[in-house]
Design a protein that fits this description.
The structure is a homodimer of 222-residue chains. Chain A is built from ten helices and no strands. Chain B binds a DNA duplex (30 and 30 nucleotides) through helix 1, helix 2 and helix 3. Chains A, B: It holds the Pfam family TetR_N. Chains A, B: Keywords: DNA-binding, Transcription, Transcription regulation.
DNA sequence: CACCAAGCGGAGATGCGATCTCCGCTTAAG
DNA sequence: CTTAAGCGGAGATCGCATCTCCGCTTGGTG
Protein backbone atom coordinates (compact mmCIF):
# COMPACT_ATOMS: atom_id res chain seq x y z
CA UNK A 1 0.00 0.00 0.00
CA UNK A 2 1.39 3.31 -1.01
CA UNK A 3 0.95 6.49 0.96
CA UNK A 4 -0.01 9.30 -1.37
CA UNK A 5 -0.89 8.09 -4.80
CA UNK A 6 1.61 10.21 -6.65
CA UNK A 7 3.41 13.47 -6.36
CA UNK A 8 2.12 15.00 -9.57
CA UNK A 9 -1.57 14.37 -9.46
CA UNK A 10 -3.24 17.15 -7.50
CA UNK A 11 -4.21 20.41 -9.15
CA UNK A 12 -4.64 22.21 -5.82
CA UNK A 13 -1.30 21.49 -4.14
CA UNK A 14 1.94 22.46 -5.86
CA UNK A 15 4.13 21.41 -2.89
CA UNK A 16 3.08 18.09 -1.43
CA UNK A 17 2.07 18.89 2.09
CA UNK A 18 1.78 15.94 4.49
CA UNK A 19 -1.73 15.18 5.61
CA UNK A 20 -2.70 15.68 9.16
CA UNK A 21 -2.62 12.39 11.07
CA UNK A 22 -6.39 12.04 11.38
CA UNK A 23 -6.81 12.95 7.74
CA UNK A 24 -4.41 10.26 6.61
CA UNK A 25 -6.16 7.74 8.81
CA UNK A 26 -9.48 8.62 7.25
CA UNK A 27 -7.98 8.36 3.82
CA UNK A 28 -6.91 4.79 4.50
CA UNK A 29 -10.32 3.97 5.90
CA UNK A 30 -11.96 5.17 2.75
CA UNK A 31 -9.66 3.06 0.59
CA UNK A 32 -10.29 0.01 2.72
CA UNK A 33 -14.03 0.52 2.59
CA UNK A 34 -13.89 1.03 -1.16
CA UNK A 35 -11.90 -2.14 -1.60
CA UNK A 36 -14.46 -4.14 0.29
CA UNK A 37 -17.50 -2.64 -1.38
CA UNK A 38 -16.01 -2.77 -4.87
CA UNK A 39 -15.23 -6.44 -4.32
CA UNK A 40 -18.66 -7.27 -3.00
CA UNK A 41 -20.98 -5.02 -4.92
CA UNK A 42 -19.05 -3.77 -7.91
CA UNK A 43 -17.69 -0.46 -9.04
CA UNK A 44 -21.08 1.21 -9.09
CA UNK A 45 -21.37 1.69 -5.34
CA UNK A 46 -21.85 5.35 -4.51
CA UNK A 47 -19.22 7.39 -2.77
CA UNK A 48 -21.85 8.04 -0.12
CA UNK A 49 -22.02 4.33 0.55
CA UNK A 50 -18.27 4.02 0.74
CA UNK A 51 -18.04 6.96 3.12
CA UNK A 52 -20.69 5.55 5.41
CA UNK A 53 -18.97 2.18 5.35
CA UNK A 54 -15.69 3.84 6.22
CA UNK A 55 -17.31 5.68 9.09
CA UNK A 56 -16.50 9.11 7.72
CA UNK A 57 -18.66 11.86 6.30
CA UNK A 58 -19.32 12.15 2.58
CA UNK A 59 -17.48 15.42 2.50
CA UNK A 60 -14.33 13.71 3.72
CA UNK A 61 -14.46 11.15 0.97
CA UNK A 62 -14.93 13.78 -1.71
CA UNK A 63 -12.16 15.90 -0.22
CA UNK A 64 -9.60 13.13 -0.72
CA UNK A 65 -10.82 11.67 -3.96
CA UNK A 66 -12.13 14.20 -6.41
CA UNK A 67 -13.72 11.50 -8.49
CA UNK A 68 -14.38 7.82 -8.38
CA UNK A 69 -11.56 7.10 -10.82
CA UNK A 70 -8.87 8.15 -8.39
CA UNK A 71 -10.33 5.86 -5.82
CA UNK A 72 -10.52 2.93 -8.20
CA UNK A 73 -6.90 3.41 -9.19
CA UNK A 74 -5.81 3.51 -5.57
CA UNK A 75 -7.71 0.33 -4.85
CA UNK A 76 -6.76 -1.77 -7.86
CA UNK A 77 -3.07 -1.25 -8.11
CA UNK A 78 -2.58 -4.00 -5.57
CA UNK A 79 -4.90 -6.43 -7.29
CA UNK A 80 -3.13 -5.88 -10.57
CA UNK A 81 0.26 -6.58 -9.07
CA UNK A 82 -1.12 -9.80 -7.65
CA UNK A 83 -2.30 -10.92 -11.07
CA UNK A 84 1.11 -10.21 -12.53
CA UNK A 85 2.73 -12.22 -9.78
CA UNK A 86 0.40 -15.12 -10.56
CA UNK A 87 1.47 -15.14 -14.17
CA UNK A 88 5.10 -15.18 -13.18
CA UNK A 89 4.51 -18.03 -10.80
CA UNK A 90 2.77 -19.93 -13.57
CA UNK A 91 5.77 -19.40 -15.77
CA UNK A 92 8.00 -20.82 -13.05
CA UNK A 93 5.97 -24.02 -12.81
CA UNK A 94 8.03 -26.99 -13.96
CA UNK A 95 5.29 -28.41 -16.18
CA UNK A 96 4.13 -25.93 -18.83
CA UNK A 97 0.59 -27.28 -19.02
CA UNK A 98 0.18 -27.36 -15.27
CA UNK A 99 1.50 -23.84 -15.14
CA UNK A 100 -1.20 -22.75 -17.57
CA UNK A 101 -3.87 -24.53 -15.56
CA UNK A 102 -2.63 -22.86 -12.40
CA UNK A 103 -2.79 -19.50 -14.11
CA UNK A 104 -6.38 -20.05 -15.19
CA UNK A 105 -7.35 -21.21 -11.74
CA UNK A 106 -5.59 -18.53 -9.75
CA UNK A 107 -6.69 -15.70 -12.00
CA UNK A 108 -10.22 -17.05 -12.07
CA UNK A 109 -10.20 -17.13 -8.30
CA UNK A 110 -9.12 -13.51 -8.08
CA UNK A 111 -11.93 -12.55 -10.39
CA UNK A 112 -14.38 -14.70 -8.50
CA UNK A 113 -13.46 -13.00 -5.27
CA UNK A 114 -13.74 -9.48 -6.58
CA UNK A 115 -16.59 -8.22 -8.65
CA UNK A 116 -14.95 -4.84 -9.00
CA UNK A 117 -11.88 -6.44 -10.50
CA UNK A 118 -14.04 -8.21 -13.06
CA UNK A 119 -15.63 -4.94 -14.00
CA UNK A 120 -12.39 -3.00 -14.12
CA UNK A 121 -10.51 -5.53 -16.21
CA UNK A 122 -13.06 -7.52 -18.15
CA UNK A 123 -15.99 -5.24 -18.73
CA UNK A 124 -15.86 -2.28 -21.00
CA UNK A 125 -18.26 -0.15 -19.03
CA UNK A 126 -15.85 1.26 -16.50
CA UNK A 127 -12.93 3.14 -17.89
CA UNK A 128 -11.30 1.86 -21.03
CA UNK A 129 -7.92 3.33 -20.25
CA UNK A 130 -7.36 1.65 -16.95
CA UNK A 131 -8.26 -1.74 -18.38
CA UNK A 132 -6.00 -1.24 -21.36
CA UNK A 133 -3.07 -0.17 -19.21
CA UNK A 134 -3.59 -3.09 -16.87
CA UNK A 135 -3.72 -5.59 -19.67
CA UNK A 136 -0.59 -4.17 -21.15
CA UNK A 137 1.24 -4.96 -17.95
CA UNK A 138 -0.24 -8.43 -17.80
CA UNK A 139 0.16 -9.57 -21.37
CA UNK A 140 3.88 -10.37 -21.48
CA UNK A 141 3.85 -12.94 -18.71
CA UNK A 142 0.56 -14.45 -19.84
CA UNK A 143 1.81 -14.75 -23.41
CA UNK A 144 4.92 -16.49 -22.19
CA UNK A 145 2.90 -19.08 -20.28
CA UNK A 146 0.77 -19.78 -23.33
CA UNK A 147 3.67 -20.00 -25.74
CA UNK A 148 5.59 -22.29 -23.47
CA UNK A 149 2.66 -24.71 -23.20
CA UNK A 150 2.34 -24.74 -26.97
CA UNK A 151 6.03 -25.40 -27.49
CA UNK A 152 5.75 -28.30 -25.07
CA UNK A 153 3.05 -29.71 -27.34
CA UNK A 154 0.44 -29.61 -24.60
CA UNK A 155 -1.67 -26.65 -25.66
CA UNK A 156 -3.30 -26.56 -29.09
CA UNK A 157 -1.46 -24.32 -31.51
CA UNK A 158 -4.38 -22.20 -32.68
CA UNK A 159 -4.72 -20.47 -29.33
CA UNK A 160 -3.41 -16.96 -28.93
CA UNK A 161 -2.72 -14.77 -25.91
CA UNK A 162 -5.88 -12.74 -26.53
CA UNK A 163 -7.91 -15.86 -25.85
CA UNK A 164 -6.93 -15.77 -22.21
CA UNK A 165 -8.86 -12.69 -21.16
CA UNK A 166 -11.84 -13.71 -23.25
CA UNK A 167 -11.99 -17.08 -21.54
CA UNK A 168 -11.77 -15.31 -18.20
CA UNK A 169 -14.61 -13.12 -19.39
CA UNK A 170 -16.73 -16.20 -20.04
CA UNK A 171 -15.93 -17.66 -16.65
CA UNK A 172 -16.67 -14.32 -15.08
CA UNK A 173 -20.17 -14.46 -16.53
CA UNK A 174 -20.76 -17.76 -14.76
CA UNK A 175 -19.30 -16.42 -11.53
CA UNK A 176 -21.47 -13.36 -11.71
CA UNK A 177 -24.66 -15.36 -11.90
CA UNK A 178 -23.87 -18.21 -9.57
CA UNK A 179 -21.94 -16.32 -6.91
CA UNK A 180 -24.58 -16.64 -4.20
CA UNK A 181 -25.50 -20.20 -4.96
CA UNK A 182 -22.41 -22.05 -6.12
CA UNK A 183 -19.46 -19.67 -6.03
CA UNK A 184 -17.10 -22.23 -7.52
CA UNK A 185 -19.26 -23.30 -10.41
CA UNK A 186 -16.93 -21.51 -12.79
CA UNK A 187 -14.38 -24.26 -12.17
CA UNK A 188 -16.71 -26.75 -13.79
CA UNK A 189 -16.66 -24.81 -17.01
CA UNK A 190 -12.97 -24.14 -16.75
CA UNK A 191 -12.37 -27.88 -16.72
CA UNK A 192 -14.50 -28.18 -19.82
CA UNK A 193 -12.62 -25.43 -21.58
CA UNK A 194 -9.27 -26.84 -20.56
CA UNK A 195 -10.29 -30.13 -22.12
CA UNK A 196 -10.95 -28.15 -25.25
CA UNK A 197 -7.60 -26.39 -25.01
CA UNK A 198 -5.51 -29.52 -24.59
CA UNK A 199 -3.85 -30.64 -27.77
CA UNK A 200 -4.49 -34.35 -27.30
CA UNK A 201 -6.79 -36.15 -24.95
CA UNK A 202 -8.58 -39.44 -25.15
CA UNK A 203 -10.72 -39.22 -22.04
CA UNK A 204 -12.53 -36.26 -20.53
CA UNK A 205 -10.99 -34.81 -17.40
CA UNK A 206 -13.31 -35.15 -14.40
CA UNK A 207 -15.20 -31.91 -13.95
CA UNK A 208 -14.07 -29.78 -11.05
CA UNK A 209 -17.55 -29.01 -9.78
CA UNK A 210 -20.91 -30.78 -9.95
CA UNK A 211 -23.69 -29.43 -12.13
CA UNK A 212 -26.26 -27.25 -10.46
CA UNK A 213 -29.24 -29.05 -9.01
CA UNK A 214 -32.72 -27.78 -9.78
CA UNK A 215 -32.90 -25.29 -6.92
CA UNK A 216 -29.45 -23.92 -7.49
CA UNK A 217 -30.15 -23.65 -11.16
CA UNK A 218 -33.34 -21.69 -10.64
CA UNK A 219 -31.64 -19.34 -8.26
CA UNK A 220 -28.73 -18.84 -10.59
CA UNK A 221 -30.67 -18.18 -13.72
CA UNK A 222 -33.41 -16.01 -12.30
CA UNK B 1 -56.80 -5.35 -19.09
CA UNK B 2 -59.23 -7.15 -21.39
CA UNK B 3 -56.95 -6.58 -24.27
CA UNK B 4 -55.69 -9.40 -26.40
CA UNK B 5 -52.46 -10.25 -24.65
CA UNK B 6 -53.97 -11.56 -21.44
CA UNK B 7 -55.30 -14.94 -22.50
CA UNK B 8 -53.62 -15.00 -25.87
CA UNK B 9 -51.30 -17.93 -26.30
CA UNK B 10 -51.13 -17.13 -29.99
CA UNK B 11 -49.80 -13.80 -31.12
CA UNK B 12 -51.64 -13.97 -34.42
CA UNK B 13 -55.22 -14.42 -33.17
CA UNK B 14 -57.16 -11.24 -32.40
CA UNK B 15 -59.93 -12.55 -30.13
CA UNK B 16 -62.77 -10.31 -31.26
CA UNK B 17 -62.21 -6.97 -29.62
CA UNK B 18 -63.00 -3.63 -31.16
CA UNK B 19 -59.80 -1.63 -31.51
CA UNK B 20 -60.08 1.20 -33.91
CA UNK B 21 -58.09 0.62 -37.09
CA UNK B 22 -55.56 3.36 -36.46
CA UNK B 23 -55.16 2.20 -32.88
CA UNK B 24 -54.38 -1.33 -33.93
CA UNK B 25 -51.91 -0.05 -36.50
CA UNK B 26 -50.15 1.97 -33.85
CA UNK B 27 -50.09 -1.00 -31.55
CA UNK B 28 -48.27 -3.04 -34.16
CA UNK B 29 -45.87 -0.20 -34.80
CA UNK B 30 -44.99 -0.07 -31.13
CA UNK B 31 -44.35 -3.79 -30.99
CA UNK B 32 -42.18 -3.64 -34.08
CA UNK B 33 -40.20 -0.71 -32.74
CA UNK B 34 -39.77 -2.45 -29.40
CA UNK B 35 -38.54 -5.60 -31.09
CA UNK B 36 -35.93 -3.68 -32.99
CA UNK B 37 -34.73 -1.59 -30.07
CA UNK B 38 -34.72 -4.48 -27.62
CA UNK B 39 -32.63 -6.47 -30.06
CA UNK B 40 -30.20 -3.69 -30.72
CA UNK B 41 -29.93 -1.90 -27.41
CA UNK B 42 -31.33 -4.23 -24.80
CA UNK B 43 -34.36 -4.27 -22.58
CA UNK B 44 -33.46 -1.02 -20.87
CA UNK B 45 -34.56 1.26 -23.65
CA UNK B 46 -37.19 3.67 -22.43
CA UNK B 47 -40.77 3.52 -23.54
CA UNK B 48 -40.28 7.08 -24.73
CA UNK B 49 -37.58 5.87 -27.07
CA UNK B 50 -39.72 3.07 -28.38
CA UNK B 51 -42.64 5.42 -28.96
CA UNK B 52 -40.49 7.88 -30.84
CA UNK B 53 -39.04 5.07 -32.91
CA UNK B 54 -42.53 3.84 -33.68
CA UNK B 55 -43.59 7.32 -34.74
CA UNK B 56 -46.30 7.59 -32.11
CA UNK B 57 -46.67 9.68 -28.97
CA UNK B 58 -45.59 8.39 -25.58
CA UNK B 59 -49.15 8.47 -24.41
CA UNK B 60 -50.13 6.04 -27.12
CA UNK B 61 -47.48 3.57 -26.08
CA UNK B 62 -48.53 3.74 -22.44
CA UNK B 63 -52.19 3.43 -23.41
CA UNK B 64 -51.58 0.04 -25.03
CA UNK B 65 -48.96 -1.34 -22.70
CA UNK B 66 -49.47 -0.46 -19.07
CA UNK B 67 -45.93 -1.44 -18.24
CA UNK B 68 -42.77 -2.56 -19.93
CA UNK B 69 -43.41 -6.17 -18.94
CA UNK B 70 -46.45 -6.48 -21.17
CA UNK B 71 -44.46 -5.17 -24.05
CA UNK B 72 -41.57 -7.54 -23.45
CA UNK B 73 -43.94 -10.47 -23.29
CA UNK B 74 -45.57 -9.45 -26.53
CA UNK B 75 -42.21 -9.15 -28.22
CA UNK B 76 -40.52 -12.30 -26.95
CA UNK B 77 -43.19 -14.89 -27.38
CA UNK B 78 -42.09 -15.29 -30.97
CA UNK B 79 -38.42 -15.56 -30.14
CA UNK B 80 -39.13 -18.20 -27.56
CA UNK B 81 -41.13 -20.28 -29.99
CA UNK B 82 -38.25 -20.06 -32.41
CA UNK B 83 -35.85 -21.41 -29.81
CA UNK B 84 -38.16 -24.30 -29.07
CA UNK B 85 -38.39 -25.08 -32.76
CA UNK B 86 -34.60 -25.09 -32.96
CA UNK B 87 -34.36 -27.67 -30.19
CA UNK B 88 -36.90 -29.85 -31.94
CA UNK B 89 -35.02 -29.59 -35.20
CA UNK B 90 -31.85 -30.57 -33.39
CA UNK B 91 -33.60 -33.61 -32.03
CA UNK B 92 -34.63 -34.55 -35.53
CA UNK B 93 -31.07 -34.44 -36.81
CA UNK B 94 -29.92 -37.91 -37.81
CA UNK B 95 -26.59 -37.67 -35.99
CA UNK B 96 -27.03 -36.96 -32.27
CA UNK B 97 -23.75 -35.09 -31.93
CA UNK B 98 -24.33 -32.98 -34.98
CA UNK B 99 -27.80 -32.25 -33.69
CA UNK B 100 -26.30 -30.94 -30.47
CA UNK B 101 -23.78 -28.83 -32.36
CA UNK B 102 -26.55 -27.40 -34.49
CA UNK B 103 -28.51 -26.56 -31.36
CA UNK B 104 -25.58 -24.71 -29.86
CA UNK B 105 -24.95 -22.84 -33.07
CA UNK B 106 -28.51 -21.89 -33.85
CA UNK B 107 -29.34 -20.86 -30.30
CA UNK B 108 -26.10 -18.94 -30.04
CA UNK B 109 -26.97 -17.13 -33.23
CA UNK B 110 -30.37 -16.13 -31.91
CA UNK B 111 -28.72 -14.75 -28.82
CA UNK B 112 -26.05 -13.04 -30.84
CA UNK B 113 -28.68 -11.32 -32.93
CA UNK B 114 -30.77 -10.11 -30.04
CA UNK B 115 -29.40 -8.46 -26.98
CA UNK B 116 -32.84 -8.26 -25.45
CA UNK B 117 -33.21 -12.01 -25.75
CA UNK B 118 -29.93 -12.51 -23.93
CA UNK B 119 -31.11 -10.27 -21.14
CA UNK B 120 -34.54 -11.81 -20.90
CA UNK B 121 -33.37 -15.40 -20.86
CA UNK B 122 -29.81 -15.41 -19.59
CA UNK B 123 -29.49 -12.48 -17.25
CA UNK B 124 -31.20 -12.34 -13.95
CA UNK B 125 -31.76 -8.62 -13.96
CA UNK B 126 -34.95 -8.46 -15.97
CA UNK B 127 -37.83 -10.42 -14.55
CA UNK B 128 -37.16 -13.77 -12.96
CA UNK B 129 -40.57 -15.16 -13.76
CA UNK B 130 -40.46 -14.73 -17.49
CA UNK B 131 -37.06 -16.34 -17.72
CA UNK B 132 -38.10 -19.24 -15.55
CA UNK B 133 -41.28 -19.83 -17.53
CA UNK B 134 -39.37 -19.65 -20.79
CA UNK B 135 -36.76 -22.09 -19.64
CA UNK B 136 -39.44 -24.47 -18.50
CA UNK B 137 -40.79 -24.59 -22.01
CA UNK B 138 -37.33 -25.05 -23.47
CA UNK B 139 -35.88 -27.62 -21.14
CA UNK B 140 -37.63 -30.79 -22.35
CA UNK B 141 -36.40 -30.59 -25.91
CA UNK B 142 -32.92 -29.45 -24.91
CA UNK B 143 -32.62 -32.26 -22.39
CA UNK B 144 -33.62 -34.75 -25.02
CA UNK B 145 -30.92 -33.54 -27.39
CA UNK B 146 -28.31 -33.83 -24.66
CA UNK B 147 -29.39 -37.24 -23.46
CA UNK B 148 -29.48 -38.59 -26.97
CA UNK B 149 -25.94 -37.46 -27.66
CA UNK B 150 -24.79 -39.09 -24.46
CA UNK B 151 -26.53 -42.38 -25.25
CA UNK B 152 -24.81 -42.33 -28.61
CA UNK B 153 -21.50 -42.14 -26.78
CA UNK B 154 -20.59 -38.83 -28.37
CA UNK B 155 -21.16 -36.41 -25.50
CA UNK B 156 -19.35 -36.86 -22.22
CA UNK B 157 -21.57 -38.35 -19.52
CA UNK B 158 -20.97 -35.80 -16.80
CA UNK B 159 -22.84 -33.08 -18.66
CA UNK B 160 -26.35 -32.20 -17.58
CA UNK B 161 -29.13 -30.19 -19.19
CA UNK B 162 -28.46 -27.24 -16.90
CA UNK B 163 -25.06 -26.88 -18.52
CA UNK B 164 -26.63 -25.76 -21.76
CA UNK B 165 -27.92 -22.37 -20.64
CA UNK B 166 -24.77 -21.70 -18.67
CA UNK B 167 -22.63 -22.32 -21.71
CA UNK B 168 -24.88 -20.02 -23.68
CA UNK B 169 -24.39 -17.49 -20.92
CA UNK B 170 -20.63 -17.69 -21.37
CA UNK B 171 -20.91 -17.31 -25.12
CA UNK B 172 -23.28 -14.42 -24.58
CA UNK B 173 -20.59 -12.64 -22.60
CA UNK B 174 -18.24 -12.88 -25.56
CA UNK B 175 -20.93 -11.73 -27.95
CA UNK B 176 -21.77 -8.80 -25.76
CA UNK B 177 -18.23 -7.49 -25.80
CA UNK B 178 -17.21 -8.25 -29.35
CA UNK B 179 -20.47 -7.47 -31.10
CA UNK B 180 -19.23 -4.35 -32.86
CA UNK B 181 -15.85 -5.72 -33.76
CA UNK B 182 -16.16 -9.43 -34.47
CA UNK B 183 -19.79 -10.42 -34.11
CA UNK B 184 -19.03 -14.08 -34.71
CA UNK B 185 -16.19 -14.44 -32.27
CA UNK B 186 -18.40 -16.48 -29.97
CA UNK B 187 -18.16 -19.33 -32.47
CA UNK B 188 -14.44 -19.58 -31.77
CA UNK B 189 -15.10 -20.30 -28.15
CA UNK B 190 -18.01 -22.55 -28.93
CA UNK B 191 -15.65 -24.74 -30.96
CA UNK B 192 -13.32 -24.87 -28.00
CA UNK B 193 -16.10 -25.81 -25.62
CA UNK B 194 -17.43 -28.42 -28.01
CA UNK B 195 -14.00 -30.00 -28.06
CA UNK B 196 -14.27 -30.12 -24.32
CA UNK B 197 -17.75 -31.63 -24.48
CA UNK B 198 -16.87 -34.42 -26.87
CA UNK B 199 -16.33 -37.74 -25.17
CA UNK B 200 -13.31 -38.77 -27.22
CA UNK B 201 -11.12 -36.77 -29.48
CA UNK B 202 -7.51 -37.09 -30.47
CA UNK B 203 -7.08 -33.92 -32.47
CA UNK B 204 -8.46 -30.46 -31.87
CA UNK B 205 -11.27 -29.36 -34.14
CA UNK B 206 -10.30 -26.35 -36.25
CA UNK B 207 -11.58 -23.22 -34.56
CA UNK B 208 -14.58 -21.61 -36.20
CA UNK B 209 -13.24 -18.05 -36.04
CA UNK B 210 -9.77 -16.52 -35.95
CA UNK B 211 -8.46 -14.94 -32.78
CA UNK B 212 -8.83 -11.19 -32.46
CA UNK B 213 -5.99 -9.13 -33.84
CA UNK B 214 -4.53 -6.37 -31.71
CA UNK B 215 -6.94 -3.66 -32.84
CA UNK B 216 -9.99 -5.83 -32.54
CA UNK B 217 -8.83 -6.99 -29.15
CA UNK B 218 -8.38 -3.47 -27.86
CA UNK B 219 -11.77 -2.45 -29.09
CA UNK B 220 -13.41 -5.50 -27.62
CA UNK B 221 -11.88 -5.31 -24.19
CA UNK B 222 -12.09 -1.57 -23.65
C1' DC C 1 -72.48 14.55 -44.07
C1' DA C 2 -72.63 15.06 -39.11
C1' DC C 3 -71.53 13.73 -34.89
C1' DC C 4 -68.87 12.07 -31.03
C1' DA C 5 -66.33 8.82 -28.49
C1' DA C 6 -62.11 6.58 -29.24
C1' DG C 7 -57.77 7.77 -29.85
C1' DC C 8 -53.76 10.85 -30.18
C1' DG C 9 -49.59 13.71 -28.91
C1' DG C 10 -46.35 15.34 -25.96
C1' DA C 11 -45.41 18.82 -22.36
C1' DG C 12 -44.77 18.45 -17.90
C1' DA C 13 -45.70 16.59 -13.08
C1' DT C 14 -43.64 13.26 -10.21
C1' DG C 15 -40.31 10.45 -8.21
C1' DC C 16 -35.84 8.72 -7.50
C1' DG C 17 -31.20 8.47 -6.70
C1' DA C 18 -26.45 10.04 -7.39
C1' DT C 19 -23.09 13.79 -7.15
C1' DC C 20 -21.05 17.30 -4.92
C1' DT C 21 -20.97 21.72 -2.02
C1' DC C 22 -21.17 24.54 1.92
C1' DC C 23 -20.44 26.11 6.40
C1' DG C 24 -20.57 25.81 11.36
C1' DC C 25 -18.16 22.83 14.51
C1' DT C 26 -14.07 19.91 16.08
C1' DT C 27 -9.36 18.85 16.70
C1' DA C 28 -4.38 18.14 15.61
C1' DA C 29 -0.19 20.44 15.88
C1' DG C 30 3.04 23.88 17.08
C1' DC D 1 -3.64 28.62 23.64
C1' DT D 2 -4.23 29.53 18.94
C1' DT D 3 -5.46 28.53 14.48
C1' DA D 4 -5.95 26.45 10.29
C1' DA D 5 -6.73 21.89 8.63
C1' DG D 6 -10.15 18.83 8.67
C1' DC D 7 -14.81 17.04 9.58
C1' DG D 8 -19.80 15.89 8.99
C1' DG D 9 -23.83 15.51 6.61
C1' DA D 10 -28.01 18.11 5.29
C1' DG D 11 -29.49 19.62 1.25
C1' DA D 12 -28.93 21.95 -3.37
C1' DT D 13 -28.53 20.41 -7.95
C1' DC D 14 -28.78 17.52 -11.72
C1' DG D 15 -30.30 13.95 -14.81
C1' DC D 16 -33.35 10.76 -16.21
C1' DA D 17 -37.21 7.52 -16.54
C1' DT D 18 -42.16 6.82 -15.67
C1' DC D 19 -46.57 8.00 -16.34
C1' DT D 20 -50.63 11.45 -16.55
C1' DC D 21 -53.57 14.83 -18.31
C1' DC D 22 -56.18 17.37 -21.43
C1' DG D 23 -57.09 19.90 -25.62
C1' DC D 24 -57.14 18.44 -30.35
C1' DT D 25 -57.92 14.95 -34.25
C1' DT D 26 -60.20 11.28 -36.63
C1' DG D 27 -62.44 6.78 -37.70
C1' DG D 28 -66.79 4.77 -37.91
C1' DT D 29 -71.60 4.90 -37.91
C1' DG D 30 -76.42 6.38 -38.73
Amino acid sequence: MSRRTSSAAHPESPPVRPLRADAERNRQRVIAAAQELFARRGLDVTLDDIARHAGVGVGTAYRRFANREELIDAVFEGALQHLIALAEQALAHEDPWEGLVQLFLATGQDFADDRGLRQALLESTHGKDRAAAARERLTPAVSAVITRAQQAGQLRDDIEPSDFPLIQLMLGAVTQHSRNVAPELWKRYLTLILDGLRRDRDHPTPLAHPALDQDEFDQTMT
